[in-house]
Design brief:
The chain has strands at about 5, 10, 50-55, 60-65, 70-75, 80-85, 100, 105-110, 115-120, 125-130, 145, 150-155, 160, 165-170, 175-185, 195-205, 210-215, 220-230, 230-235, 240-245, 250-260, 270, 275. With about 280 residues, the protein is mostly beta strands. The strands form 6 sheets. A 4-stranded mixed β-sheet has the order 1-2-23-22, with no helix packed on it. It is globular, with a radius of gyration of 19 Å.
């Protein structure tokens, strides 16, 4: 369950996003407005979304399980298009997170467990993907490679990705910053090189070049990320109460905050005065 808290610099209220002009102390008294959008005509009518982008005319809504974007016209809430990153429905359950606009006609979407990020060009209706994780040397008996990450298929036909969760992202200047981690530990395959990382992926918008910036020792699962100018705030959803202040001008962590008010901070939002966190 999502907790709602405010800590001098950190708070949690998902509904706040719906009432940007409402004072925080009155947010609980407001009645949100909901819009139902029928997605039964898509690959999976039971799908849901982890986020959306509003460009003023359309809502661009992530299709979490299908791995795509729903384009919804704001004037009448009608679906104006459904765009899939994968041509085949057999690769559904890809876990697409919040679309982020780069100001150049593209939306960037993190595919949570596959070790990749997607760039969708709105004008050309084209998709390109980029691997966040490094190339792993050697071969593994237990896992197959999907191009960016390893996965295995159990006896029932269910697919499981390796441990490479990435969640939210923001654009700063010419770069996309993504909070995430990977941990490759092949106990049964000594020929494979183990690898581990927790921090930020810095993606060059022009060409998708990936730079990995490690966070301090003890960081477990960077997840939430929000920006205040050139400063990023990044949460660790596994390490109790950890939120990091990151300076993009030097690409370094400049402060580690430990708070008891938000036990395991997940997503973050900044309004210029306060930092809000879900737990």
């Amino acid at each position: 369950m999502n907790c709602l808290r405010r800590i001098i610099t950190v708070t949690v209220v998902l509904a706040v996003l719906l009432f940007a002009s409402t004072p925080l102390q009155n947010v609980y008294a407001q009645t949100p407005t909901y819009v139902n959008i029928n997605i039964s005509g898509t690959r999976d009518g039971t799908d849901y979304s982890e986020g959306a982008y509003d460009d003023g005319t359309y809502y661009w809504i992530s299709l979490f399980k299908q791995g795509g974007i729903l384009k919804v016209r704001k004037s009448d809430n009608a679906i104006a298009g459904t765009f899939q990153a994968y041509a085949s429905a057999s690769v559904d359950s890809r876990d697409f997170y919040t679309p982020v606009d780069d100001g150049n006609g593209n939306l960037w979407i993190v595919e949570r467990d596959s070790g990749r990020v997607w760039k969708y060009n709105k004008a050309g209706n084209t998709w390109n993907s980029y691997c966040l994780t490094p190339t792993v040397t050697g071969t593994t008996r237990d896992y197959n490679n999907n191009g960016c990450n390893f996965y295995r298929v159990d006896a029932s036909g269910n697919t499981y990705d390796y441990n490479t969760p990435s969640y939210y992202s923001v654009v700063v200047g010419n770069y996309l910053y993504i909070a995430g981690k990977y941990q490759y530990t092949f106990e049964n395959d000594p020929s494979v090189t183990d690898a581990e990382f927790a921090g930020l992926y810095k993606v060059t918008l022009a060409d998708g070049l990936i730079t990995r910036i490690s966070f301090p020792a003890g960081t477990n699962a960077p997840s939430g990320i929000t920006k205040d100018g050139t400063i990023l705030w990044v949460s660790d959803r596994v390490t109790a109460g950890k939120i990091y202040k990151f300076d993009t001008s030097s690409d370094t962590v400049t402060q580690t905050i430990t708070t008891s008010s938000v036990t395991y901070p997940f997503s973050l939002f900044d309004d210029g005065t306060f930092l809000y966190a879900t737990s």
